[in-house]
């Protein structure tokens, strides 16, 4: 069974550019609407089943939370569901927004 791996902000950015990684943001809807990584999808209990069924398990998945802690458990869960390459991003969205503010979208952008 594949295991999730931790990934730095820079590694995540490179993986997104080079391999079209899926970014799954597990933060609450209000936080996601206020700001999220460009191209990220909000992942929660309501859409988890559809995400697992409809996402290519061969594409890398980067799981993002607030600070990079909760995403580790969620990433491991996705690895257990058959995703071959799953990462938890260290520092979470908070660090991403600080280091790459130009790569942050809101619900309205």
UniProtKB/TrEMBL annotation:
Primary localisation category: cytoplasm
UniProt keyword list: Cytoplasm, Transferase
EC number: 2.8.1.1
InterPro entries according to UniProt: GlpE_sulfurtransferase, Rhodanese-like_dom, Rhodanese-like_dom_sf, Thiosulf_sulfurTrfase
Catalysed reaction, written as an equation: thiosulfate + [thioredoxin]-dithiol = [thioredoxin]-disulfide + hydrogen sulfide + sulfite + 2 H(+); thiosulfate + hydrogen cyanide = thiocyanate + sulfite + 2 H(+)
Cellular location(s): Cytoplasm
Enzyme class: transferase
Family: Belongs to the GlpE family.
GO CC annotation, single: cytoplasm
Role this protein plays: Transferase that catalyzes the transfer of sulfur from thiosulfate to thiophilic acceptors such as cyanide or dithiols. May function in a CysM-independent thiosulfate assimilation pathway by catalyzing the conversion of thiosulfate to sulfite, which can then be used for L-cysteine biosynthesis.
Name of the protein: Thiosulfate sulfurtransferase GlpE
Gene3D superfamilies, per the entry: Rhodanese-like domain
Tagged with keyword Transferase: yes
Residue stretches making up the Rhodanese domain: 17-105
Lineage: superkingdom: Bacteria
Active site: 65
């Amino acid at each position: 069974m594949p295991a999730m791996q931790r990934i730095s902000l820079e590694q995540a950015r490179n993986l997104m550019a080079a391999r079209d990684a899926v970014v799954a943001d597990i933060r609450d809807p209000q936080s996601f609407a206020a700001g999220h990584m460009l191209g990220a999808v909000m992942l929660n209990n309501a859409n988890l089943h559809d995400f697992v069924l409809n996402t290519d398990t061969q594409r890398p998945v980067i799981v993002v939370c607030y600070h990079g802690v909760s995403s580790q458990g969620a990433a491991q869960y996705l690895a257990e569901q058959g995703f071959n390459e799953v990462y938890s991003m260290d520092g979470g969205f908070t660090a991403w927004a600080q280091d790459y503010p130009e790569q942050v979208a809101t619900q309205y952008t």
